[in-house]
Design goal:
The structure is a homodimer of 350-residue chains. Chain A has 2 domains: 2-120, 3-Layer(aba) Sandwich (Rossmann fold); 131-295 and 326-348, Dihydrodipicolinate Reductase, domain 2, CATH 3.30.360.10. Helices cover 36% and strands 23% of the residues of chain A. Chain A is built from 12 helices and 14 strands. The first copy, chain A, has helices at residues 11-22, 38-42, 58-62, 79-88, 98-115, 131-138, 153-165, 169-178, 187-191, 193-207, 226-234, 298-314, and strands at residues 2-7, 28-34, 53-55, 68-71, 92-95, 119-120, 144-150, 217-218, 237-248, 253-264, 276-283, 287-294, 330-333, 347-348. In chain A, the strands form 2 sheets. In chain A, strands 7, 8, 9, 10, 11, 12, 13 and 14 form an 8-stranded mixed β-sheet that branches. In chain A, helix 4 (79-88) runs parallel beside helix 5 (98-115) and helix 5 runs parallel beside helix 10. The interface between A and B is large, with 44 and 44 residues.
Chain lengths: 350, 350
Amino acid sequence: MIRVALLGFGTVGSAVARRLTHSPARNIQLTHVFDRRARQKRASLGAAASRLIFTDCIDDIVSSDVDVVVEAVGGVEPAASWIRSTLLAGKSVVTANKQVVAQHGAALWRLASRQGRQFRFEAAVGGAMPIVRAIGDGLAGDRITRIVGILNGTTNAVLSQMEATGCSLDAALDAARARGLAEADPSADLSGDDARAKLAILCALAFGVRVKPEDVGGGSSAGVTCRDIANACRRGGTIRQLAHAEYDARQTALTAWVAPVFVERDSIFARTTGAQNAALITGEHCGEIGIFGAGAGGDATSVAVISDITAIARDRAAIIPAPELVSDFRLLTADCRFADSRTIELQEAM
Amino acid sequence: MIRVALLGFGTVGSAVARRLTHSPARNIQLTHVFDRRARQKRASLGAAASRLIFTDCIDDIVSSDVDVVVEAVGGVEPAASWIRSTLLAGKSVVTANKQVVAQHGAALWRLASRQGRQFRFEAAVGGAMPIVRAIGDGLAGDRITRIVGILNGTTNAVLSQMEATGCSLDAALDAARARGLAEADPSADLSGDDARAKLAILCALAFGVRVKPEDVGGGSSAGVTCRDIANACRRGGTIRQLAHAEYDARQTALTAWVAPVFVERDSIFARTTGAQNAALITGEHCGEIGIFGAGAGGDATSVAVISDITAIARDRAAIIPAPELVSDFRLLTADCRFADSRTIELQEAM
């Protein structure tokens, strides 16, 4: 039996709690929930809450006897510090927090490895789509050269809604909010910063390079108009926010950008609508591997979190060696709004 | 440093050997190759062969000091016995052999687990497409209800060639052979037996049920004519060999078939051409997750094999608990050649 504590009771945290309490796996038991508003949130779990310890004091979690802490707080701090304390206290950590993994993932992974514990983050990229395992594990036997994907479900829902209805970005945003696909403040989604953090995580896994999300160029999707999309349709395609990373190991040059670009109508990206995510991963030997699925939403993301807990439950003693990341490469990027993704002109970053 | 022996030097074995000798990973070393025609095959590796022990005696491998044995012999026996001896000798095993995994996978996995060693088989299904990890690990946090896929690259190459050119099945087979996509005897590919073995493996991973490949119904693709495909095109789609499995846990009823069926033109399956594989995995919480990629060929399959070796190299002490499979369910299947995959009438098997 593996004992689990949950940090944060928002969309992802509450979905994980619901599943672990209502149809629990035989060998996984949720015992603690930390939330700043623990008292109010307790009620939402109904009768199941009576078997849980709710607390607004992080030390109650760090000093508890749980085996795994699920971090679903979001934001870099205090989440990163809490993960560090948790690993130092000898527990494994599962996180859904792309910002923490993009900024501090390598250091936390090293710490986990030194502690003989695990640091897992399938939920940080792609929701239920198991792209972290595909790249970090399933394709570890190849040299990956390129990753192109739709990594932000909110922006994709907005752009594909504009394409389908001809509405404005604001109207599409309202529709996305009404369906729970956009938060009150979607600026990190539209600007591409959310996808930049995810792309940085995938660059570490695929290429072994350490890239700061903020150094990844591209352009924001916030200013896309229905006219831009109509123009793209006339050219035989549409506009999607793509995240693109390509690594030339011989030249030690990383190309990375996130931007709204033109994609052809029959590409997998044009066919990806709503909050779906999709990615094409190219390797020297495997050719092109594609993966797609629900990229957002508490229920889909809870699958990734619980899969990570299950992996730890299967072998608690397993040690996953931390990757060594290099920072010594040229970063190429582009200001490529509305460009055809195949013909983008690159420039040196910084 | 992890030491590796290779059983079998056919398409997959020689591709693995080439990669491990020509651009070796720092911590993986190929040391032994077993093949019945070891002397002739040795020459094909060039200078790299001088650092390897080639043998036609299986005991040389079983009694060697290697850590991992890669089984790429194919066929149920003697491969299954050799894997058993290897595990008993305290080595981990990576196999690309779908027949062995479909027939004896559960027992070999249990043996590996008891021995504190690993039994991995990513290469047995889907070539480089990491579907074994996606189902067994990445989506382990969900209850998977359905898997539908194109799991045989040869048949898909033949059917999509017939669709593209209007040629006969025999002509398409010749074209596939010329491109190295079909073997001299493609009967197991066309009949669906190859896909049935792969589907049985996925059913064990996804649903925890033990189904014999030969009990999976459906129909053969060997008799598909260009007229059948032309008819399907007129109906707005085409013909693909699909493998379909659906498990109703409450009714303990497994539906499973492999057959050439009608698929709609804009489905992922109609768009899957050549030797590509593709699968849609449905879970109660994750919705539909898709994965596609090169399903055959030595180079693509070598990625899956080397990814499995890499996983073992990362943590040799890791123990993957064997799944418990149940046989106590109703098996529903169908004789569904050319049926629309959405409207197939099922019958009880046996």
